[in-house]
Write a structure and sequence with these properties.
Helix content: over 70%
Strand content: under 5%
Distance between the termini: 38 Å
Order of helices and strands: HHHHHHHHHHHH
Oligomer: single chain
Length: 270
């Protein structure tokens, strides 16, 4: 699924660059700066999605997706050493609130008992947030230093190298799919959807936002618009019963994200 999704996303980005008449330029930049592109490809989509999908295998969807929302907190923290941004007191309190929320969700409310559905799944989900935040922070730093500043070319170069990497991984660990199988066809359709809307178009828009912002926490906090809607989809489409601890934990995470929006005295709100 991941191989197909990344290949579709690469095709989408190629069409975008072709329309903008930048595909040849992107290829030239990749040839002259392939080590940076390889670093990007290894972080995202290769390692990030392999780890995230494994976390979804080990955890209920409501837990994995809720924990995944803490990447916004991780991003604002990584922006301090990597982008030279300052850590404000609301960011520190937001960190505490967000990871208290993670603990509530991961233990289904049994915080003192520390009983997890899958501790490995929780750790993998948290690791995925680190990789996701690191990827976008490094892309933003490269862009501000004049390295492949166009978001489309930046993404295209990484995905160009990710496709053969994932092809090798797929051949090593997976069986050849039976394409006539109805379940396989449904999976391919889902992978195509992920490639266009989860990766290609969404990545492009997000990287443009990252390049334009002067304060990463200001846009990363916009994530609070979607998590509760995700719980509705999980409940209705997957038939997964949402535990009471999940919205409670999400409320803590979102409180932390909202706290990042509070302006500090003497500073203009970002």
């Amino acid at each position: 699924m991941l191989l197909i999704a990344v290949a579709v996303s690469w095709g989408f980005l190629s069409l975008v660059l072709l329309f903008k008449k930048q595909l040849v330029l992107a290829a030239q930049e990749l040839r002259s700066n392939w080590p940076v592109a390889l670093r990007r490809a290894l972080i995202n989509p290769v390692c990030y999605y392999l780890i995230l999908l494994q976390a979804y295998d080990l955890l209920p969807a409501q837990q994995a997706q809720a924990i995944n929302y803490t990447w916004a907190i991780t991003m604002s923290l990584l922006a301090v050493p990597l982008l030279g941004q300052k850590l404000r007191w609301p960011d520190a309190v937001a960190l505490l609130l967000a990871y208290c929320g993670v603990l509530v969700i991961a233990t289904r409310g049994d915080v003192l008992g520390l009983t997890f559905d899958s501790l490995s799944g929780v750790l993998l989900a948290l690791l995925s947030t680190l990789l996701w935040a690191l990827y976008w922070i490094l892309n933003t730093r490269d862009s501000r230093q004049g390295d492949q500043a166009d978001a489309g070319r930046t993404l295209w170069s990484g995905f160009t190298l990710a496709v053969p990497l994932l092809l090798v991984i797929t051949l090593l660990v997976d069986d050849v799919p039976q394409w006539a199988n109805a379940q396989t066809q449904q999976s391919v359709a889902a992978a195509v959807y992920v490639g266009i809307f989860e990766m290609g178009l969404t990545f492009l828009l997000w990287q443009q936002a990252m390049n334009l912002t002067q304060r990463t926490a200001a846009i990363s906090s916009l994530i609070f618009l979607s998590p509760f809607l995700s719980l509705v989809f999980i409940s209705q489409l997957l038939g997964e019963e949402v535990a009471l601890s999940t919205p409670l934990g999400l409320a803590l995470i979102l409180a932390g994200l909202a706290l990042q929006k509070i302006p500090v005295a003497g500073r203009k709100a970002g």
